[in-house]
Amino acid sequence: MDYHQRIDELQRTMTHFFEAKEGVFAEITEKICQRLRRKKKILIFGNGGSAAQAQHFAAELVNRFLFERAPIPAISLTTDTSALTSIANDSSFDNVFRQQMEALSIPGDVALGLSTSGNSTNVVKAIEYAKQRNLMTVVFTGEGGGQVGLLADYCCDVPSANTPLIQEVHMFLLHLLAENIEKRIGRSKAD
Question: What angle separates helix 163-185 from helix 49-62, to the nearest 10 degrees?
Answer without folding.
Answer: 10
